[in-house]
Amino acid sequence: MRKHSGWNSAEFLLLERGEFSQERAAAAERREDVPGKDGAQMSFVLLKFLARLAFVCALLAGDPAKAAPKYSYKVIATYPHSTESYTEGFFYLDGIFYESIGIKGRSAVLAIAPETGRILQRHDLPAEYFGEGIVDWGPTIYQWTWKSHVCFVYDRFTLQVLKQFTYIGEGWGMTRTANELITSDGTSTLRFRDPRTFRETRHIVVKDGSKAVEQLNELEFIKGEIYANVWHSDMIARISPRDGHVIAWIDLTGLLPAGQRIDAESVLNGIAYDPQHDRLFVTGKRWPAVFEIETVEEAVRKANLQ
C-alpha cells in the first residue's frame, strides 16, 4: 500500500485552533498523492473537502498571523488648536469639536468652534481629577478619569454633571458603537461597556499578526472599525471590533515635526470623525493645530514628496 501524504497532524491541530493560513490550506489542496486501499479513499476525499473549506475560510477571513498593511496621509486642511490643551479625548458632533483635556488642576471638557478654535463652553473638573477619554451618548457626554475610577456624565448642551459611574482600572480612551461604549486602559485590551451601567460586557485583545499592541490610547469608531492612537507613537491602528486584529496602520510620521512639539509628552493623541462629510481629524497633546487628513497608499505619498 502506498503511504498517503495528505494533511499531517500538525496541520489538523492548526485547523482545530483556527490558525490555518491561506498558504497552508492551498498547499494541502495541491497535494496529488494517490490514496491506497482499506478506506483510505474516503479519508482522502474528506481531507480534500476540508482543505477546500479551510482555503475558502482563510480567503474570507484573511490570515490573522500576517502583519497589517500600512497607509500614509495627505493633509486636507488645518484648524487652530490650543497649545494649553493636553488632549486626552476628542470627537466631532454637529459642527463642534468636543475635547477632554488632562493634567490634575487643569482638566476640563471643552466645546470648540473648529474654524476659529474659540471655546464655546467649558466645564472644569475638580483639581483631584485627571480627565481622560470622552464620547457622546444621546443627549449626554461621558468623560472618565485616569486613576480616580470615576466617569462623569454631562448634559451635552450645558455640560452640567448629571451622574457618575465607578469602574475598576485606569481610564484612557473612549468611543462608542451604536449600542456600546468602547474603552482603552493603556494595555492591548479594549473593553466594551453597557452605557446604562458602565459595566464591561466583553473585551478584545488587539494584535498585529501574533503580536499584542500595547498602550492603546485615544479611540474613535469609524465605518465599523476602531481607530486607536498608540501612546508615544505616530501610528493609528485600525482595529476589528470582532476579534481585535489590526486591519491596517496609518503612519502619521512628520505630521507635526519634532521641532514644533512643546516637549516629549506632546504626542499624537486625538481622533475625530465627521460622518456627514466623511472627514477625519487628528491632533495631539498641546499641538498647535488639528489636521484634517485623508489616508493614502505609502507609495503615493513617497512619490508626491519626491
SSE layout and pairings?
Elements: H1 9-17, H2 22-30, H3 40-61, E1 70-80, E2 87-93, E3 96-101, E4 108-112, E5 119-124, E6 131-137, E7 140-145, E8 150-155, E9 161-166, E10 174-176, E11 181-184, E12 189-193, E13 200-205, E14 207-208, E15 211-212, E16 216-222, E17 225-230, E18 235-239, E19 246-251, E20 268-274, E21 279-284, E22 289-297, H4 298-305
Parallel strand pairs: 1-19
Antiparallel strand pairs: 1-22, 2-3, 3-4, 4-5, 6-7, 7-8, 8-9, 10-11, 11-12, 12-13, 14-15, 16-17, 17-18, 18-19, 20-21, 21-22
Written description of the protein model:
16% of the residues lie in helices and 42% in strands. With 306 residues, the chain is an alpha+beta fold. It has four helices and 22 strands. Strands 16-17-18-19-1-22-21-20 form an eight-stranded mixed β-sheet. A four-stranded antiparallel β-sheet has the order 2-3-4-5, with no helix packed on it. A four-stranded antiparallel β-sheet has the order 6-7-8-9, with no helix packed on it. α2 (22-30) runs antiparallel to α3. The N and C termini lie far apart (64 Å). The longest helix is centred in the N-terminal third of the chain and has 22 residues, at 40-61. The chain has helices at residues 9-17, 22-30, 40-61, 298-305, and strands spanning 70-80, 87-93, 96-101, 108-112, 119-124, 131-137, 140-145, 150-155, 161-166, 174-176, 181-184, 189-193, 200-205, 207-208, 211-212, 216-222, 225-230, 235-239, 246-251, 268-274, 279-284, 289-297. It is globular.
